[in-house]
Design goal:
The structure holds two protein chains of two kinds. Chain A has helices at about 1-25, 85-95; strands at about 25-45, 45-55, 55-60, 70-75, 80, 105-115, 120-130, 130-145, 155-165, 180-195. Chain A is an alpha+beta fold. In chain A, strands 1-3-4-6-7-8-9-10 form an eight-stranded antiparallel beta barrel. Classes of the chains: A alpha+beta, B mainly alpha.
């Protein structure tokens, strides 16, 4: 009986150690098929205009033992903006807004990670967009980490994040006053990443 | 009241027109028939720069191509002024202007060029360099006189007609290409040329005494227009490049239609610039009609 209990304890410890080892400073690659960046912005106060960016890539270095040392890098193809309206998309890509030919990539690189709860935190980093770089803080929830249901050797994890940015701070759409197109843009980010 | 002064129509139309009108008149009458007439077009350049400041404000260091337009435009105007003050022949100014425009193209696209070979970009740059040659040498050909007193010379009035038409037409092409910012700047350029043309035509009609165009006009204002068009073509993917290229025909027609300007009896002096303007307006009108007719229906997004 003692022997079987010892074996069970050892197995449990091994599992826990294994899990901790999997979390210690591992590199995760963002899964582009399961990465979503949506935005919401006021349109004359009548409603919120919503759209998304369709091409996202990036990497996460996630340290389960000390999440504050984790690093996040996300890249978004600016020309992948999609507001479900062709004429508006053309205008959004033009120099009046995102100027995608000159600034094709939107990039976020984290500089600080703070833990605020068991699975929540704040990630602060530099957002480079439209040729300008400013600091942004994301409110992040770590959702889950587990093996893929079919490919057990593939470990997946996922995060949800929300952030608010000022488009005028990045010089986007300066011709259009905040009364017409809101200055505050709310970003909704859903990311899945696969352990490398 | 504050809203009135902040409206783009006032900042990009009324204010630059008034600034150009006042400055052109001051320089012309203050400077006299020689120097004043030659340099009065400086009012056009300053009016444009004022419009840019009101519409865009000035940012240094300039990050985006649109922010660089102000500095490139100012450089062309300063160069044109210097060339006129040292009495550089217009054709020589045109050559230097072309070299300067190629350098400006590099500055505008250095970020894109640094990303690696891009055939489309190279072809666009080559096309713009050719366009610059057409613009500078056409304007120099329309205004071949390097004399300070251009009494009886219709060249400056003709060149001003071309610039006014291609500025407004370029603004329309940019507007329908979903680049409202550049549309405003080009329309502002048209507005300031409107002021110059108004004073010029009145002086021409009254006494056959025009104002000069010179290097300030050819290199200065020609360079301003080319810079705006370059940013339009290079960075606004929805702008119709073929309609924009049609505008070059206005410059070419401006040279070919010179014999229409007969100057002489009073009626001819009044009518010939108008007839000339109608002819050179044809390609510009065609470009505008093209972009209007091919524009997507306005769904008011």
């Amino acid at each position: 009986m003692l022997k079987s209990k010892f074996i069970a304890l050892a197995a449990g410890a091994a599992l826990l150690t294994g899990a901790a080892t999997a979390q210690a400073a591992d590199t995760w690659k963002v899964d582009p098929a399961h990465a979503f960046v949506y935005y919401k912005v006021s349109h004359f106060g009548w409603s919120n205009n919503m759209g998304r960016f369709n091409k996202i890539s990036g990497s996460i270095v996630f340290d389960g033992k000390d999440v504050t040392t984790s690093k996040v890098m996300l890249e978004i193809e600016a020309a992948s903006i999609d507001s479900a309206h062709e004429a508006r998309d053309k205008h959004l890509k033009s120099p009046d807004f995102f100027n995608v030919k000159e600034f094709p990539t939107i990039k976020f690189v984290s500089t600080k990670v703070e833990k605020t709860g068991d699975r929540t935190g704040k990630i602060t980093g530099n957002l480079t967009m439209h040729g300008q770089t400013h600091e942004v803080t994301l409110d992040v929830t770590w959702n889950r980490m587990s093996p893929h249901f079919r490919q057990k050797d593939r470990i997946h994890t996922g995060f949800s994040a929300v952030a608010k940015v000022s488009r005028l701070k990045w010089g986007i759409g300066k011709k259009f006053p905040p009364q017409a197109i809101g200055d505050e843009i709310t970003l909704f980010i859903e990311i899945e990443a696969i352990k490398q | 009241m504050q809203g009135f002064w902040q409206s783009p129509e006032v900042q990009g139309g009324v204010v630059p027109f008034v600034i150009a009108f006042v400055l052109v008149a001051l320089i012309r009458f203050g400077g006299g028939r020689g120097l004043g007439a030659r340099l009065a077009i400086l009012g056009v350049g300053i009016g444009f720069l004022a419009a840019y400041y009101l519409l865009e404000s000035i940012t240094w260091p300039a990050v985006s191509s649109k922010q660089k337009v102000f500095f490139i435009a100012a450089a062309f105007l300063v160069a044109g002024l210097f060339f006129d003050l040292v009495r550089l022949p217009a054709k020589v100014g045109a050559v230097i202007g072309l070299v300067g425009f190629i350098a400006a193209l590099y500055w505008l696209t250095e970020r894109n060029l640094a990303r690696g070979p891009d055939t489309t970009l190279i072809l666009q740059l080559a096309g713009l360099a050719i366009a610059a040659a057409v613009v500078f040498f056409s304007l120099a050909a329309i205004t071949p006189s390097d004399a300070w007193d251009e009494t009886g010379n219709t060249g400056p009035l003709q060149a001003g007609s071309v610039m006014l038409l291609v500025a407004f037409a370029g603004g329309a092409v940019s507007f329908f290409g979903a680049f409202i910012g550049m549309a405003q700047l080009l329309i502002a350029l048209g507005a300031v040329f409107g002021a110059w043309m108004l004073l010029h035509y009145l002086g021409w009609a009254a006494a056959g005494a025009p104002m000069g165009f010179g290097n300030l006009g050819t290199v200065g204002t020609g360079g301003v227009w080319l810079t705006c068009v370059a940013v339009m073509i290079l960075f606004a993917g929805s702008v119709n490049p073929y309609a924009t290229a049609l505008l070059l025909l206005s410059f070419i027609l401006g040279v070919l239609a010179r014999p229409l300007a007969i100057g002489g009896p009073a009626r001819g002096r009044l009518l010939s610039p108008i007839l000339y303007g109608i002819v050179v307006a044809l390609p510009a009108a065609a470009a505008v009609a093209w972009v209007i007719l091919t524009a997507e229906p306005d769904t008011g997004y």
